[in-house]
Model the fold of this input.
Amino acid sequence: MPRELASALAGKHNHRVDTNVSIPSLQTPLRRLPGLLLAGMLAVTIANTLLPVVPGVLAALLAWSAFVLLWPRLGIQQRVQVVVLFAFGGAGIWWGYAHGVSPDPARLLGQNQLIISMLASVTLMRLLNGPMLETERELPRGIGTYVRSMFGVHTFAAVINISALVIMADRLSRRAALQINQAQMLSRAFTMAAFYSPFIGGVALALAYTPGSSLPVLLSFGVPLALIGFAVLYWYARTGRVADIANFRGYPVHFESLWLPVSLGVAVLTLHVLAPHYSVLSLVVMLTPLIVIATLATRGGIAGIRRGLGEYVNLRLPEMAGELALFLSAGVLASGLVAVFAATDGWVPFAQFDAQSASVLLLVTMGVSLIGIHPVIVVSTAAPLLAPIDPDPTLLAMVFTMGWGIGCAVNPLSGTNLTLHGRYGVSNWAVARGNFGFGATLCAFAIALLHVYAWLAT
Done:
């Protein structure tokens, strides 16, 4: 990555609302324990993937232990969201048990374990960013900067996840508070990566809940939807729908720096073709540490690896608190829903899952997102509910990923918009409301693409 982009990670902002724990306070053994637990979780997951004799439930237990310790780091809105998911999931498990369905402990504890491990693995990419330079130039302005900035945050987000959002927002807010037009650009460009990137939690969840779905097909429809989104954003900028576009302060990325994210993506997809018995998620979990450690060794030798891994355990892994809580609680909800559906007569909302049904599900996802219900709830509910009618797994995965990307943009309680609020003081509700028109436009194009897929699949 270029030096100026890499430097954006560690800057301090006097105006910024920063909820992260400071470096010194994380050096005590107790403060380091959550990171050690999550690092152990990642190691166990890799070992279990290569040697199934290693009990995978151990990784889940380590994740739950870290979650308990990281609970104080969650914001109020995140805690409420998690408690609601736990409550509904627990009620479903109890109701199912009362009707003769015994809970599955492995599903309850580790429903989304591979996804959590994938996120922990991708977090390693943060180690490849360096300190911010005091001599950096003033940010460029204008529509060209706007366009390059949105492509930059999107491209990096497609591999390093929400870390890309933080890197860009840190740089943009270094000398002045993050503006609403900058926050909306970041939110929109970042969430579109969820249409296709297996390094994003939404895509990982969709692939995990739709066995047999095709990642290449998902890419072939998700990437065009993202490109449509870029065209819409460019049209917004050209027609005055971005406030004060002439003075828009952006952070255009030098695209020669994309070799590392692109290399990781190519390596994962190539190995998936050569070794299809390994899932895409498993390959991400295993390859990312190898690439990051090799890069750290090249840059700084053994000392560089030690410094990097120390930062990873002490700082970067604890920053996963929100994602860890979301996916663990979503796993409990999914377990409860499975128990409920197993105890019922198999009611499903559709007689068959075709393009029309997929469109309805997408609209439902956007609708509930507008009122603060996270798309993870839709995925956790719809996957077991639709299982009896044996839906096309790729079509279902497409709905999940499209709904995740659009839903997280318009949802005031999504991780993306909460990050912009918690770290930079931008109203998450204002960002979400401002994204409604953009989300509705993409929803229309997504429905058209769902129909194209259904037509081609017949």
